[in-house]
Amino acid sequence: MSDKRRYLGVIEGFYGETWSWQARQEYPGFMSKVGLNAYIYAPKSDSHLRKQWREPWSEADLAALQGCALQFSRQSIEFGIGLSPISLTAEASVSAKDLALLDMKIAQIDAISTNLLCILFDDVPSDGSAMAKRQLALCDHIRAKTQAKHIIVCPSYYSTDPILEKLFGARPTDYWRNLGMGLDSDIDYFWTGEQVCSKAYSEDNLQFIAEQLRRRPVLWDNYPVNDGAKLSRYLHLKPFTSQRFLSELTAGHFANPMNQAYLSQLPLATLAFQYQQNDPQLNTAITNADDQLKAVVDLEWRKFCEQSLGQSLAEDFFNDVESFQYQGLDQFSESLKTNLVNKYAQYDSVYAAEIVNWLEERYRFDPACLTG
Known about the structure:
By secondary structure, this protein is an alpha/beta fold. It has one domain: Glycosidases (TIM Barrel, Alpha-Beta Barrel), CATH 3.20.20. 45% of the residues lie in helices and 10% in strands. The chain has helices at residues 21-34, 59-74, 96-112, 131-145, 163-168, 175-182, 203-213, 246-249, 261-268, 271-278, 290-309, 311-327, 334-345, 350-359, and strands at residues 7-12, 38-41, 78-83, 116-120, 150-154, 188-191, 218-221, 252-255. It has an eight-stranded parallel beta barrel. It is globular and about 60 Å long.
């Protein structure tokens, strides 16, 4: 993939509390402003993309998705959908009925957008040595049916993090190499790094997986996401970690945001900026260490926060952001929570409203969402 077609965007791929359609409708304007060029609709809460993928969306949901895709198109932002055809690759042969239902779902997705289709095999149990072969066969079938201009696949083992094997079973031998040999060269794949939620990326790790799959990875960055039992106790609001080598070693970068749609904009605003600074054709002022780039990104983040929140709210936000990010709800006393709720409730702001809702435990993680 050339840098001219590099994706820098948002993948709504979290568990739990979903975004409103109003928030999604407002995201194209935000993303265009901060230099992001692609959005993928793949919330785990939409069962029609996962366990109930065989069932078509209702007319109302289909209309909402089409309207959302149109809003992104008007801002020249590519709109994609992530489909997880759960159970199909676990079967030695797929029934004609299931293939027909899959074709119907692909047709419905094409009716929403033909920009980008993501085939997501994440968070499913290992099904042994035939896993890669079955996934490749499914990818070939979907590609033959879809009108999508571009496809990104998420492997079942999308990180070298041992937690994946602990949760889903041993990774089949040569799983990554077999995928790399079988996927057409213009199909990309997602990668989260050395951990499912990597705080930073390793050059060695990115080079390793690029060699395994014979192409550079598209990062699925699980920051600022906060959908887990532990993560939901925090608001991830600080800028992205600046690593200058990412431009050379990746084919794109999608960030998985928080359950809080508007607060997610604060860190997301810094994603594209650091790639612009990394690009040698755009960058003449910054010539050395990552810490210099970090200082520039931090400054841009503060500017965006001030513009979005307004001066008064921004002052309160900057005073509390470290506590929201690193201390978390479980370390807040009840009196502190009450004071913070009173402080932010005075503002007529979508950002402040999400802070209040978080403080009042309206985003508490529900383990049942993992089975939906």
